[in-house]
Amino acid sequence: MEKFASRALLAFFLIFLTLPPAAYLLTGDQSFSETENRYLAQFPAWSPARLWDGSLALSLETYLADQFPGRSFWVRVKAAADAGIGKRDIGGAYLGRNGRLFEKKDRPPPELFRENLAHLARLAESSGLACTFLPVYSAATLYPEDLPPYAPLLPERRLLTEIRAALPPAVLMVDTWPALAAARAENIYFRTDHHWTQTGAYYAFRALAAEKGWTAPEQEPRAAGTPPFLGALSAQAPLPWLRGDEFPLWDEPAPVGIEIYVTDTGETLSSPYVYVNLSKKDLYTVFLGGNYSEIVIRTAANTGRRALVLKDSFAHALTPFLLPYYDEITLIDLRYFRPSLSAYLAERDFSEIYFIYNITWFAGDKNFHRVSE
Amino acid sequence: MVFSGLPFLCFFLPAALALYYLAPRRARNGVLCLVSVVFYAWGEPVYVALMLFSIAANFAYGRCLEQRGPRRLDLLAIVLVNLALLGFFKYAAFLAENLNALGAALPVPDLPLPIGISFYTFQALSYVIDAYRGRCAVQRSLIDFGCYLALFPQLIAGPIVRYIAVAEQLRHRRESVAEFTAGIRLFAVGLAKKVLLANQFGLLWESCRAEPPDSLAGLAAWLCIVAFALQIYFDFSGYSDMALGLGHMFGFTFPLNFRYPYTARSVTEFWRRWHMTLSAWFREYVYIPLGGNRVSVPRHILNIAVVWTLTGIWHGAAWNFALWGAYFGLLLILEKYVWAGGLEKAPAWCGHLYCLIAVLVSWVFFSCASAGEALTYLRLMFGGAAAWSNDFALYQLISSGPLLIAGALGATRLPAAAWAALTRVRPGLSAWAGAVLAAGALLLSLAYIVNSGYNPFLYFRF
């Protein structure tokens, strides 16, 4: 009996040692992992110098890990084991109740937040334009009861009062809290992505419209008809029991003649929705096609207003609602935008500026010094 | 190359085992020697030359000893050669920096430390000194000697195997299926300790360390240092288990390196259980030659101080390691001369508590690069924090709670005792459970290795 168990272990070990190398040789390399939502390392470039200084060995180790046979299976096993041993966060995502994942960010240095505010305040004053700050809450602020106990997070509502205090009084602060809090039971934040749904963005837009005195049209969402959406957080914590959300897509805005120019790619789109991305893993890229440094949208709204929007990706789901109110909307993402912003402002004839940011991201964003350059 | 990586598990180990068992018996030491050089050269190709030189020089000393008989001067020369290599690559920069701080203007060499140099240099010294003393026969085969010094299972993180412990095995060893499977079990246990426990505690330690100290609660400071204590124990003892397991796969039996050190009741006992091959080496080749304890009390105290300062800087060329060693030396002297009787009479839990706190405090010195940082941590741990607890500390405690409990239990002899009891009562069940657990540990470790960018090697300063 004991001997048989020993032999079985020996046989297992021999398979354990020989199967992976054989599988490496027999299976081809993959370039992208859908499970993890990232590109995988490829076979490293060989050179005697790289062999000599040891950097080839390091690249090979990354390559072997990324191309390990059946990698996505092992990735799930590890995530499930982490959850099984009681870990409350995996890969930068908090494991919440009700199948929710929340983004876990390192606490940014408080002085960075204050500097960011100072840069924005300076821009608001020096531009002389009407400015609107539309803060976007994180899912954790709306669903704190689903967070793991004691999970450290930035107190967004308190930060918001600091933002209000630091910006010039002329800056319009949109209070989106009542509308979003009232709609908590609806599908306003994805459970497995850090973004809000377009329904969440719609409620924020209603709050904005009320402040601006616009009569927002009564619109209805429709399901995009995609399989349930598993977002970026589920790639960080790929637990087998996570379930996706319905992906709501709101009707396209009314004015015809929309022309969207994406500077980074040179492409021109005729709709803020990039429908081909409905078949991709990251459905959120349906909105304006994803993250670009500069997008210029022209409409036939004929309002005489031209807006500059400094934003992160939370703004993408909201932008379609803004189109009927502007002749031109320029979206700038400071994470990717390199030219001088003051020169950019001087060259163009904007009538107002929007800041649309997630509060936590804003507090940790390291790109705002460009505003003053 | 490290044991807990894919290049080792998926390519090196299968190839090394295949080559070894396909080779005729007389060629096997040669195969081991060769694969060990490849093992070392991975990521560290330049320093292979250094290791080969060390093999050649120490082997040549043996042959010289055989022809000319034991001469003090020859021994001194070869010991100095070994120490000079170690000194130059490990301590030159440290020495230069300190002399410069005193006003000298020496160039500070900027050399990466050759991995494992402290381990194989100590092994080489054990050979030349024991050969000189006539305790072992001179090794006449360069291949066998190279095999001893470069043997990959214990090359980079110990145990420090004295030559006399394996001299016989180098020539006459018998591999067997039973020994091989025992090796698999040990290797699986070691790999799981490293990957499933040590690396996870390492993550906890690093996330606590990333917090700014002024917002760290007392509880978090304790968590931080407990996590470090568990990380270094499971990492180091895991490596030793893997080394022993790999040794068995090739027919070798290496000495035990760790015996539940955190269950000790005094610091003296802790060091009889922690990195046993290192303390044995210092006892044999430094402490006893200095006269050990058969000298006057002041001389004995001096001996302890010397040995423990050396033990400290063996772990790294920096003042915090010297301080760490000196701290242990001081505690050992105190235990010998001041509170020995008190400790023995005190109830067991007092001894355990005292030893644990003493060792945890030592890890603060060990892990903090500067004295200022170490003092900050000690202050936070002993009542100087702004708060005893906060969200961060409670979150980490809950999130890592089960892991911490598993680690704390795993550091005692309870699992081994339970296993022994099961084997006594139901030997068949225990054999099968052992096989299933070993296989499971290997697979789960593999999942963590494939997945994790986090696989630190802690001994790059040793």
Structure commentary:
The complex is a heterodimer of chains A (373) and B (462). Chain A is of the alpha/beta class and 373 residues long. Chain A folds into two domains: 2-95, no CATH class; 108-372, no CATH class. Helices cover 37% and strands 15% of the residues of chain A. Chain A contains 13 helices and 15 strands. In chain A, helix 9 packs across helix 11. The radius of gyration of chain A is 24 Å and the shape is globular. Chain A starts with a helix and ends in a 9-residue tail after the last helix. Chain B has 462 residues and is mainly alpha-helical. Chain B has two domains: 6-173, no CATH class; 179-451, no CATH class. Chain B is built from 19 helices and no strands. In chain B, helix 2 packs across helix 6 (142-150), helix 3 (48-68) packs antiparallel against helix 4 (72-101) and helix 3 runs parallel beside helix 5 (117-132). Chain B is globular, with a radius of gyration of 23 Å. Chains A and B meet through helix 1, helix 3 and helix 4 of A and helix 1, helix 8, helix 17 and helix 19 of B.
